[in-house]
Amino acid sequence: MDDCSQQTPLFTFGVIADIQYADIDDGYNYSRTRRRYYRSSLQLLRNALESWSESAVKPEFILQLGDIIDGFNKGRDASDRALDTVLREFSSGPVEVHHVWGNHEFYNFSRSALLRSKLNSTLHSDRSLSEARAGKDIYAYHFSPFPGFTFVVLDAYDVSLLGREESSEQYSDAMTLIRQYNSSEDLNCPPMTEGLQKRFTMFNGGFSKDQLNWLDLVLSSADEKRERVTIVSHLPVHPYSTDPICLAWNFDELLAIIRSHSSVVCFMAGHDHDGGYHRDKDSGVHHLTLEGVIETPPDRNAFGTVSVYEDRMVLKGNGRITDRVFLFPGCQSDADHRAV
Ligand code: ZN
Predict the structure, then answer these.
(1) C-alpha separations of 50 from 14, 290, 305, 318 in Å
(2) Cα(111) to centroid of ligand 1, in Å?
(3) pLDDT per position as a tens digit, 120-133
């Protein structure tokens, strides 16, 4: 890991977020400030897959950062059909897909249905990922596409009112937590406060103790092996990488774990369709929130291709996504860069 000046990428991967496909006319977001293009999101996904298929260096995998179909499908009894439609597009693409779960997955399906579905990437991968799972009903796992590099998929709705049975202990724990901060009748309405407490809404969630402990172990092992770790989750965890209304409930606990491990280089999320980016001062970790396909006009695009080198990852954005360079903390080129 000492050579920080390679020119050819070791491998590349694709990223795309918040497709939220539904076979319905355009609409608006909750606060009616952004247009949503429910049908054309499928075409934008095709554009991304076509671009990845045609690229000279084929991506090793695609990260689908959650909210693959919209919650409106549920009311129309069209959840399965919409999911089949989107997954058919993905299967025509070049490589394996790692699916992250967002709130819209839970509007359409129960947690147990999702665990059995094609959106459970640990069941549908060439590699055996079941060993790398956080727990029986937690959808978090890690994989290594290339020696020295690990990717961790997190379950940001592990503690949530979504996807858990109302009779379960997890549901009542989540209700107790959200009610400490949010007294709205409709829990999708954020509390009438300024700042970070706005995150306590029903469309967000958090990470259980079990998942945090598991992550801590995975990262300790990666530290020892001097690996580079990228973590992905539907919900962002850095307050400066997103509108705070989209943060994970216990983002602070996750940030503390990330900051205590030298192996982590990047955290990628979706959910906030406007996107965002911040480099954490404490750790040098890059926090990227990817712009959402669903609020991208039909004549634009929203996907990225990341090239991975020994000392950095380079994001080539398409359409709304900005090009970025993520120098790895601790690398000589990063030290040089930060000294300037
Ligand atoms: Zn979302």
Answers:
(1) 12, 19, 12, 13
(2) 16
(3) 999 876 556 766 78
